[in-house]
Amino acid sequence: MANLWRLWKILFVFTRYRLDSLVPVEQLPLSLRILLWLAPWRLNPVPSKLGRGERLRLALEALGPIFIKFGQILSTRPDLVPADIVKELKRLQDDVPPFPNDQAMALIEEQLGRRIAELFAEFSPQPLASASIAQVHAARLFNSDGSAGKEVVVKVVRPGIEHTIERDLQLLETMARLLVKYSADGRRLKPMEIVEDYRHTIYGELNLSIEASNATQLKRNFRDSELLYMPDVYWEYTRTKVMVSERIYGIPVADIDALHAQNTNMKLLAERGVEIFFTQVFRDSFFHADMHPGNIFVSREHPQTPQYIAIDCGIVGSLTEEDQTYLAMNMLAFFNQDYHQVAQLHIDSGWVPATTKVNEFSAAIRAVLEPIFEKPLAEISFGQVLIQLFSTARRFNMEVQPQLVLLQKTLLNIEGLGRQLYPQLDLWSTAKPFLERWMRDRFGPKAAFRELKRQLPGWIEKAPQIPGLVHGALTRLNHLDETQASLHAEIRALREELHQQKQQKRQQTMGTLTIGSGLFVWWQSFALGVPEFTGVGIAAAGILLLLLRA
């Protein structure tokens, strides 16, 4: 019933803002066009005072955080979404209506166990920014002498947001189960696994202690780096629903005019964005997976060698070593236009069935990817490529990999960001050298030496035990040899015994036949009047033979 009520609310919001008017009806099948034309909500007029982008934004805000996240992704895709809609959806990145200030302050005091005036030298009740999950307030900490100290931001989770998210997740699970049950592609797409991964991700985002630990790990990974700066986290002021961190004053990455005004090297900025992504995915296997423009800033210092600043680390992703290796090899094969290798890697990794014909699969991949090579980013839409690849995968029964969904989402964000910053970015020449370096580091002599250094302390620790272990192994081998010899002897004795038993049975059978023959001859001689000793003699010989063999 809860799912039905939520579905009813979604339909209500859909019809209230007449989102059906955004659907390209002319591209739909005739049956769906007739259905939309006869739909009862067409009796409601389209709100004339609201543009289509504003209607979509308001609808997503009304439906809650999961739908807002979807709008944030769309806001980074000007290649797929019209400009007026993108402009409105950008407001979902940090301009969602805030919740009441008194609720935020009460939650901070409840979580930290002291009053606001005791915690902060200064605190702004009006939020700096408000997003789908939480909002942030400006504040200052106390110095040791009681004066106003470091500037910080206080992040507070929206009250009651867990109930809304759980309701939407249950609806998604219901839809996933229906997809598995009634769709031919249900099992291949793995919707239940994807929803479960998203559940884990979104609940991790609700726990600000997890976000703080993610931010600390990213800061450790990029310590003293010119590429990325992560604000400090103040753990003594951090709980599950409240987090306090350093306040930064960068330029929002979507503010292209401000970046140009300070003479930012836009080409280097775009290339460094790509390098940060690949470094997180392949070097660290720990990547920021919510990189929409609202979470990314550019430092005002050194505009010719620009540095990124990232916030909001509630969603992070990671890959296994196997997935890292297969992904890197796949991408290098893409860059080298070795489609046969791409197809073979998909089969080896189990992403497509082992029965797939490599030549047919490689030909299908070539048809999708060949047109995009040696083009600037402005002329390439990875969104379109992904759609075509999914269509190709469907033909070859490729299963969706849930562990790669976050990575695909982040790739879309990176593409949208790069398109805004420097449309002429050559993604191939930027990414390919990095991947080639990573593969050399991963499998070359240096990697072997690093692995030797990593294992050496354990080997040294176990070195005193090695003679005893070797002696024990040799003793077990000797015992094994003795056991095998004894076993072989027993087998030979058994074979001899079986052979003797067969010989005895054969001789007993011959003796029985001899006795029988003697008795038969004796009976015949008696009946025909022939001397009797012949048959009796033969029978006696048979009896004697049996006695001797017994």
UniProtKB/TrEMBL annotation:
Keywords: ATP-binding, Cell inner membrane, Cell membrane, Coiled coil, Kinase, Membrane, Nucleotide-binding, Transferase, Transmembrane, Transmembrane helix, Ubiquinone, Ubiquinone biosynthesis. The keyword NADP does not apply. PANTHER family: CHAPERONE-ACTIVITY OF BC1 COMPLEX CABC1 -RELATED, PROTEIN ACTIVITY OF BC1 COMPLEX KINASE 7, CHLOROPLASTIC. Residues 91-345 form the ABC1 atypical kinase-like domain. Is probably a protein kinase regulator of UbiI activity which is involved in aerobic coenzyme Q (ubiquinone) biosynthesis. This is Probable protein kinase UbiB. The gene is ubiB. It comes from Venatoribacter cucullus. ATP binds at L128, A129, S130, A131, S132, I133, A134, Q135, V136, K155. Belongs to the protein kinase superfamily. ADCK protein kinase family.
